[in-house]
Amino acid sequence: MSDLYCVFGNPIKHSRSPFIHTLFAEQTGEVLRYEARLAPLDDFQGVWDDFVAEGGLGANVTVPFKLDALQLADVLSARAQRAQAVNTLTCGKNGKVYADTTDGVGLVRDLTSLNAPLVGARILVLGAGGAVRGVLEPLLAMGPEAIFVANRTASKARELAANFEDLGKVSGGGFEASDVQAGGFDLVINGTSASLAGELPPLPDTLFSAHGFAYDMMYGAEPTVFMRWAEPRAAATADGLGMLVEQAAESFFLWRNIRPDTASVREALRHSLLEKK
Ligand code: ATR
User: Fold this and answer.
1) Model pLDDT for residues 45-86, shown as the tens digit of each residue
2) Confidence of residue 196 (pLDDT cuts 50, 70, 90)
3) Distance CA 161, CA 142 (A)
4) Ligand 1: distance of its center to the CA of 71 in Å?
């Protein structure tokens, strides 16, 4: 039997991870299976135990099990610890479960390949939920001038920013905060789930600097609501498809110790999205 990996979620039917990892495996010659598995909302531990009993070697974890994955892990990576977020589980030969988060690295690699402003940039991150928690530390590692985290529930943004207090570069508040309303950001990353509902946080027309870049962590066959709003206001826009492929590549590397080529897989995924439209 080939080595077994999977992604757990609920719902999970629309997950693109099996598509991505299957292409990674073909490309690198690694012999493995990668499945999408639906986990019941109240028994993540149960499906995980079954998976391990079947010989499963590692898994990605998506909504709503990221916290369950954190609790189940025996060993947390430093970046997962700081982010309090987990998207990759690996079974060690010693029987221990190792947890890591690859979302932040995935985002930064995609932004870098898109030539988005990072070094010395004024960055605005919209949202303070699970999607955002994992990305602040890798963004900070790129040496921005400052990061402002804006959230509908302002207290959550302030709490998240407080985790990085020692670095003195991250602050947080509501959308109405003067930093947000003053605008002039070089990079704005939408990490809210508002676009899922076709909604948009209240943002000023002057949000972007002259070379401002708009990035949505969500993706789809069509540009997201945030991207459509940003198009006439920003110098460039991008969706989160590249982030999805890059975070998958980092998980694949953790499991197989081989870095797949992401550009060809990104293209194949975009193509398959457009075909299904
Ligand atoms: P995820 O893991 O996708 O980040 P989450 O932890 O539930 O999911 O967080 C969702 C994020 O989107 C939160 O920042 C949420 O704001 P609140 O903390 O105020 O709930 C944000 N969000 C969801 N719907 C939104 C909307 N319609 N407008 C603005 N922000 C929204």
Assistant:
1) 999 999 999 999 999 999 899 889 999 999 999 989 988 889
2) confident
3) 17
4) 22
The predicted model scores a pTM of: 0.95
Among protein residues, the one with the nearest Cα to ligand 1's atom 12 is 192
How far is residue 65 from each of residues 4, 154, 169, measured CA to CA in Å?
20, 24, 30
Residues 33 and 59 in one domain: yes
Rg (CA), the chain: 19
Amino acid identity for residue 251 in this structure: S
| Cα–Cα distance measured from residue 122 to residue 183, given in angstroms and rounded to the nearest whole number | 10
Q: Does residue 13 have an active-site annotation? A: no
Instruction: Work out which ligand 1 atom sits closest to the CA atom of 126.
Output: 14
Distance of CA 241 to the CA centre of its chain: 10
CA dihedral 124, 144, 79, 133 (to 10 degrees): -10
| CA 123 to chain CA mean position, Å | 17
Distances (CA, A) of 132 to 82, 93, 112, 126: 12, 32, 18, 8
Is the beta carbon of 144 within 6 A of some atom in ligand 1?
no
How many angstroms does the Cα of residue 219 sit away from the middle of ligand 1?
Answer: 16
Domain that holds residue 31: 3-101+242-275
Instruction: Give the rounded distance of the alpha carbon of 66 from its chain centre.
Output: 12
Q: Which residues pair with 186 in a beta bridge?
A: none
The 8-class DSSP code of residue 129 comes to S
CATH value at residue 177: 3.40.50.720
Count of the separate structural domains present in the chain: 2
Report the alpha-carbon distance of residue 177 to residue 173 in Å, rounded: 6
